[in-house]
């Protein structure tokens, strides 16, 4: 059974908790590190998956977007290495079942769509946005936990990656809305 500490709250339900007062062996910090390992695994697999998506893409714009995100993802791994270093933890990956499923789904889209079509590009954008949304929710949550734990340098690293993930998601939306979806709508069997 988990040990709990009574929190003092005022009549409005506000807690007297102050960021950074968690003990070094708190359950929250242990959970936070475990989740860092999870996204570390995800980022490492994204780095190997994006070049395959780039190769499968038809449009030059989408190919370029995947290339750019591959380079960003490599930097995300470096930032996670730095986060582990700041925590005095070994950079270690733990299989991310959610990302493994999303990546597998992306492979299925490539197999099930015709090469050289905008329809395939639509599927690739959808798969990539599923990855982005998972990353956005993960980095957003981890950044907040880092702040709660008083790990401000780690929080800053996570927020930087979060901003890049949001930019990539927006770029993919723009590609879909400006051309790819319309090109796919005009394709016939």
Characterise this structure.
This protein has helices spanning 27-56, 60-86, 97-112, 118-148, 152-185. The longest helix is centred in the C-terminal third of the chain and has 34 residues, at 152-185. The chain is mainly α and 189 residues long. The protein has a single domain (27-184), classed as Ferritin, core subunit, four-helix bundle (Ferritin, Up-down Bundle), CATH 1.20.1260. The radius of gyration is 20 Å and the shape is elongated.
Write the topology of this structure.
Blueprint: H1 27-56, H2 60-86, H3 97-112, H4 118-148, H5 152-185
Helix pairs in contact: 1-2, 1-3, 1-4, 2-5, 3-4, 4-5
Essential attributes:
189 residues, mainly alpha, Ferritin, 5 helices, elongated
Helicity level:
over 70%
Q: How much strand?
A: under 5%
The radius of gyration is 20 Å
Mean pLDDT: 90
CA-to-CA gap between the ends? 60 Å
Looking at the structure, what is the overall shape? elongated
- Could you say what the CATH topology is called? Ferritin
Query: Can you identify the CATH class?
Result: Mainly Alpha
Q: In sequence order, what are the helices and strands, one letter per element?
A: HHHHH
Largest sheet: none
What class do helices, strands and sheet pairing give? mainly alpha
The CATH architecture category equals Up-down Bundle
What oligomeric state best describes the polypeptide chains here? single chain
The CATH superfamily bears the name Ferritin, core subunit, four-helix bundle
Q: Segments where pLDDT lies below 50 for 5+ residues?
A: 1-11
In total, the number of strands is 0
Number of helices: 5
């Amino acid at each position: 059974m988990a040990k709990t500490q009574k929190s003092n709250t005022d009549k409005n339900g506000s807690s007297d908790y102050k960021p950074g007062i968690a003990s070094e062996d708190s359950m929250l910090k242990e959970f936070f590190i475990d989740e860092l390992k999870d996204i570390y695994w995800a980022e490492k697999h994204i780095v190997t998956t994006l070049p395959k998506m780039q190769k499968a893409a038809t449009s030059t714009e989408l190919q370029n977007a995947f290339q750019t995100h591959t380079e960003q993802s490599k930097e995300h791994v470096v930032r996670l290495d730095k986060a582990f270093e700041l925590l005095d933890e070994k950079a270690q990956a733990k299989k991310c079942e959610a990302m493994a499923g999303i990546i597998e789904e992306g492979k299925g889209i490539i197999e099930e769509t015709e090469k050289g079509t905008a329809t395939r590009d639509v599927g690739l954008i959808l798969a990539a946005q599923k990855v982005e949304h998972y990353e956005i929710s993960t980095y957003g949550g981890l950044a907040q936990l880092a702040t709660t734990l008083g790990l401000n340098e780690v929080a800053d690293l996570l927020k930087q990656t979060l901003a890049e993930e949001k930019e990539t998601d927006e770029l993919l939306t723009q590609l879909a809305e400006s051309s790819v979806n319309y090109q796919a709508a005009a394709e016939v069997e």
